[in-house]
Design brief:
Length: 352
């Protein structure tokens, strides 16, 4: 079968208009579009019988499907793909939606809370489920402090150059004293000043080796315990924020709900974070994945509109996206996702 671009080019004006109006009607209300409906909106006067013939041709090409006998037509996944690639008209971002997203950013706060609110605003604006893949925190470390909470519990407090603060509990080596904790913190503050978390472990290892004889044994154990903690998969790793999942559940037919729930269970276990980011790494800008085109969401039969965001060095470090039924209003959602991704990138650059 010829590819979708050649199919679209070979269509005459009537076939192209019938196809476009069927898809637009389906995206608007989720219902099959019948020939009689099209006779009222076609740009030329044509009979219902003629339109049915055109629909049959489009069905033969794999672009339309008839869910029920004698019913109207809906686009197939291939048809939606061809529409998105060749006929989709992307509108400008509505000023009111821009203001709502900007207002979310204007509330200030740490980056984690900010991205969480961005996800909620994106879900609210699109009536879909939003995904925000947050980056590892890569700002330089400004200050480190250890706080004893008891014989087997301690808290490490990390203050970053951008004002972000991380607190995390851990189990210290036996026998720690307030003095050894202060010594460990002083050592780390001297060794890691200006370094990011990803640079911390190797820097600590080098410093420990170079100054091993200068450090009290208990303090060295505490430093090594802290270093091991930083390379784990805890709060310092990538985090996937999912907001508005009820929007997607409400939009699907009841028989699809189990698959949708399975999708979100996978997301919330972070099983597919790497795949989610990989989806965006083949170039800048918004990408659209429909149904089974996307290995991450193929089981749910949903569509994903996703865009990467970058840091000041133009490196992709995260992504924002919207999941919804295949009848998403792509023309409206694409500019929202695009603007949100650019906004997150600017936020990260400004906080650098």
């Amino acid at each position: 079968m010829p590819d979708k671009n050649s199919i679209l080019e070979e269509m005459n004006d009537r076939s192209r208009e019938v196809f476009r109006r069927v898809v637009e009607g389906y995206l608007e209300n989720g219902e099959p579009v019948g020939s009689r409906t099209l006779t009222r909106v076609m740009s030329e006067k044509v009979s219902a019988a003629t339109i049915r013939n055109v629909m049959q041709d489009l069905e033969y090409l794999g672009l339309l499907d008839s869910p029920h006998v004698s019913a109207g037509r809906i686009p197939t996944q291939q048809g939606l793909r061809m529409f998105v690639d060749g006929l989709l008209e992307v509108g400008d971002l509505d000023p009111s939606e821009r203001q709502k997203i900007d207002a979310t950013v204007g509330n200030g706060g740490d980056m984690g809370g900010l991205l969480d609110r961005i996800g909620s605003a994106l879900s609210l604006a699109t009536h879909g489920a939003s995904l925000v893949l947050t980056p590892k925190h890569e700002a330089p470390i400004k200050h480190i402090e250890f706080v004893s909470l008891g014989p087997e519990r301690a808290l490490v407090v990390l203050v970053f150059g951008d004002g972000h603060v991380e607190n995390r509990l851990f189990t210290p080596p036996p026998g720690q004293t307030p003095s050894s904790m202060r010594e460990a913190a002083n050592f780390l503050n001297a060794a890691l000043e200006g370094k990011t978390l990803s640079e911390a472990k190797s820097a600590v290892s080098r410093e420990i080796e170079a100054r091993r004889q200068q450090i009290d044994g208990l303090a060295r154990e505490l430093v090594e315990s802290g270093a091991a903690m930083w390379e784990g998969e805890g709060d310092f790793g990538e985090r996937l924020i999912v907001r508005g999942r009820s929007n997607l559940l409400n939009a699907q037919e009841s028989e699809d709900l189990d698959r949708i729930r399975s999708l979100f269970d996978d997301l919330e276990r972070k099983r597919d974070i790497a795949e989610f980011l990989e989806l965006t790494e083949e170039g800048e800008g918004v990408r659209i994945f429909i149904g089974s085109e996307n290995k991450l969401f193929s089981l749910s039969g949903s569509s994903l509109v996703v865009s990467p965001y970058m840091n000041a060095d133009r490196k992709i470090i995260g992504a924002v996206g919207v999941i919804g039924p295949t009848r998403l209003n792509y023309g409206r959602i694409v500019p929202i996702v695009d603007y949100t991704a650019q906004l997150v990138g600017r936020m990260l650059t400004d906080r650098r």
